[in-house]
Every structure is written in C-alpha cells, then in structure tokens.
Design a protein that fits this description.
This protein is α+β, with helices and mostly antiparallel strands. The protein is 43% helix and 17% strand. It is built from 13 helices and twelve strands. The chain has a six-stranded antiparallel β-sheet. Strands 2, 3, 4, 5, 6 and 9 form a six-stranded antiparallel β-sheet that branches. The chain is elongated.
C-alpha cells in the first residue's frame, strides 16, 4: 500500500486516531490511509482513506474490520483496468465475499460483519463507497455536510416516511443502534457509491465510526473541526466522545485540503505521465512463465531431432516477448472518468460556526473535568495546562470564539491525555462516567 505522506505535506493535512473507548475491552474498529506515492498515482487512483467498525462475538468483529481495511485498498489499486468508481465498488464487493468466506469457514467467526466507509480523493472530486452506519462528513467553511446515508433502522424508517427528522420524536421502543446493512454476513452486499463531490482548498473530510457520531451532534463535530488542525482535532474528538461516556470504540480519520494536489516536482512527473513514460504497466505472470517455458521446450524438441517444432516454439517465444514489451512500455489508453453523480448526498447540512454557546459548552466540560480531577485526586501536571486555560479565558472576553474553543479543547486534550496514559499503566485514575 502506498504510504508516502511527505510529498503531499504542502497541500494535504491528514490524521487518523482509533481508541478503544471507556466501556469496551477490545477495539473492533480499523482504519487505513493510503496516500498516492507519486503524481501519476494520484492522477490515476487518488488518495484513499478508510474506516471500518466491526461486529461479532469474541474477536470476530475485530477480524472483519481488519480484513476490510486490508482487502479494499489493495484490491482497489490492483483493478487498474477499471475506472476509479468501478474499481472502488468492486473492491468492496470482493472484500465482502472474502470476509463472508472466512466467516463461513470457521464457526467462531460465522456471521461476523463490519461497516465500511472508503473515501478516495481524486482530481475529479471525492468518491465514497459506503456500507453501514459509519459516516463521512465534509466541512466547508462553516457548514458540515453528511455525505453518507446511515444504513440503520431509524434512517430507513425516515426515508420511508415513518419517522420525522426530529430525534426527540423517535419512540423509545425503536432501537437506534440497529443497522440494516453490513459487510460479511452474506455473500453479496449492496454498497452505496456517492460522488464525486467537488473538492476545493479548505475542505476538511472526516470519516468516523459511530463511537464518535453517537456521542456528539453534527454541530459539535463541525465546531471542533473548525477550531483545530487535523492532528489536534482528531485527538480532541476522541477525548470529548470519551468524556460523553465513551461506550463504544472511536475511530477518526481527517483529511484537509490545503492546496491543489500536486507534488513538489509535479510538472516533470505530470509530463512523464502524459507522454506515457510513467510506471510501466504490469504484465500477467503467466506471460512471463511462457517466456521461460517455450524456449525450454524448443531446446527439448531440437535435441529430439524435431527442428521444425523447435523453431516454431522459439518463434512463439519471440512473439510473446515482443508483445509483452510493447504492452508494458507503450502508452496505455487513457481511461475516461465517468463523472456523473452517484448517490443522493449530502444527506444533512449543519451550520456549525463556533459561537458563545459552543464556548459555554466546552468550558463547562473543562470545569467539570477539573473538578473531577481534584475530587478524585488524579495525578495531573497542571503547569503546561494553565497557559491554555488563561488564553481561552482571554479569547472568550474578546469574543474570539475560534481561539477560545481551540485553547479550551487543548486543556481537555492535555488532562485526558495524562489520565488515559496512566490508565494504560493500570493506575486507578478514570474519567469514565463523569458526564
């Protein structure tokens, strides 16, 4: 899998965090990030980001999500004869069949499944393959858009007109955590393809499991994304979701477009690509095998006093070799990208500019966290935290809500970071159940 982020640092910021949460003993989420290794690779296949949320007893869910994040990127990049939309959907379908086969082969893993969100950022836009209730969002300026449809009972009933959009109107007897579609339980699955969505500088894409979206509203998610750089935002979202109870695994993948996706030496690489001088096309191993077998057979028939057969075999080897070289090094036919819209996204749009109400909310989290730390005698080093608290208070007085939110979120991250670090050392400090 291509992993060369350095050549994109000037035009792309990305971060990925997964956390077990506060109530689970193991993490059934998986994630993958595969940045293009070259300009040519981006032009043909783009950057790939992925989140999968597994389900199943024992280690089944963990295995299902890991298989998804391994198989989908690998298969997508191997299907070079298909356009990106076709390759992405086929990669999900092949991964589903593979997961189902693994489940059927072992009673312990039978019925295992996983949600899947795969985002591919291409020159033509952002393309998404989606199964389940994990989500993909796009933050553009002050508007957060949900680009995927939740394959859940609640969302399906809404789409059928049986429920209103108001969360408070959902009857208590309707379960909110039942999903209607996942990869793995059945040999075939219906995968939604969304996009391509236009991409512009400043866009921030977020992929997340329901461990995040189940604890934070779209508005809060967008406000936190708008206050922080991707690395800090990913950590803050995880910490705040844990403060809200952390009942599930939490996975967050963020990609922010900071400029046109061109590598620093892109003019030369682009010229090579356009002239057909880029990476040679792969030739099937069977062809290389024939090139080894045919001359050998020719030698055998020559020794057996069958010169005509030997000559025919050598001529066949020559023709196969020439054909392989021509295929490998001549300019391939440039595949036409079918950019017709797929899916019906965005499905929700939420204005989420940081405001005074958001600052009151995040500051209240800080105060409750500090009170809990003092009451429970947590071992917290407050020295590096005080400057951020003071900066947040100053920014609040100045009505600079973005800066105030940033500083208060940094306070939360520093306290939670210290507490969670001690948890891993089996010390008694815990933040679960505070809020």
């Amino acid at each position: 899998m291509d992993r060369q982020p350095g050549i994109w640092d000037h035009c792309l910021q990305q971060a990925a965090v997964t956390d077990v949460g506060l109530r689970r003993s193991n993490n059934q989420d998986s994630m993958a990030v595969a940045l293009a290794a070259s300009q040519e690779r981006f032009d043909s296949r783009g950057h790939l980001f992925m989140v999968a949320d597994g389900m199943g007893a024992h280690a089944a869910g963990e295995l299902a999500s890991k298989l998804a994040t391994d198989v989908v990127p690998l298969t997508y990049h191997k299907l070079v004869d298909l356009s990106p939309p076709e390759a992405l959907k086929e990669a999900v379908l092949q991964a589903n069949r593979y997961i189902n086969g693994r489940g059927e082969a072992d009673l312990e893993f039978r019925g295992m499944g996983t949600t899947v969100d795969t985002l591919v950022i291409l020159p033509q836009g952002a393309l998404i393959a989606h199964v389940g209730d994990s989500r993909v969002y796009r933050l553009r300026e002050e508007c957060l858009e949900q680009l995927t449809f939740d394959h859940s009972l609640v969302w399906e009933m809404r789409a059928a007109g049986h429920l209103s959009e108001n969360e408070e109107d959902i009857p208590s007897f309707i379960p909110r955590n039942v999903i209607t579609r996942s990869m793995g339980p059945n040999p075939e699955v219906q995968a939604d393809l969304e996009g391509p969505f236009p991409v512009q500088t400043g866009d921030t894409f977020l992929l997340c499991s329901d461990g995040l979206s189940g604890q934070l509203s779209d508005c809060r998610i967008g406000q936190i994304l708008g206050c922080l750089e991707p690395g800090e935002a990913a950590q803050a979202l995880v910490h705040v979701a844990n403060l809200r109870g952390g009942p599930d695994n939490i996975t967050v993948v963020i990609a922010r477009i900071t400029g046109p996706q061109r590598t620093l030496d892109s003019p030369k690489q682009k010229a090579n690509f356009e002239n057909g001088n880029g990476t040679p096309r792969p030739v099937h191993p069977i062809i290389w095998g024939l090139l080894g077998i045919l001359p050998s057979l020719g030698g055998v028939f020559a020794l057996a006093n069958s010169p005509k057969v030997a000559l025919a075999l050598l001529l066949a080897a020559f023709l196969v070799g020439c054909g392989a070289l021509i295929y490998r090094y001549t300019k391939p036919h440039r595949m036409v990208f079918d950019s017709r819209p797929r899916g019906k996204g965005p499905y929700r749009q939420t204005l989420c500019s940081p405001d005074a109400e958001f600052i009151d909310w995040v500051r209240d989290l800080v105060n409750q966290l500090r009170e809990a730390a003092e009451k429970e005698s947590w071992h917290v080093d407050w020295q590096p935290i005080h400057p951020h608290q003071e900066a947040g208070e100053t920014a609040t007085r100045d009505a600079d809500f973005v800066k105030a939110g940033r500083e208060y979120l940094r306070v939360i991250c520093q306290i939670m970071g210290q507490v969670r670090q001690r948890q891993t050392r089996n010390e008694p400090d815990r933040a679960a159940g505070i809020f």
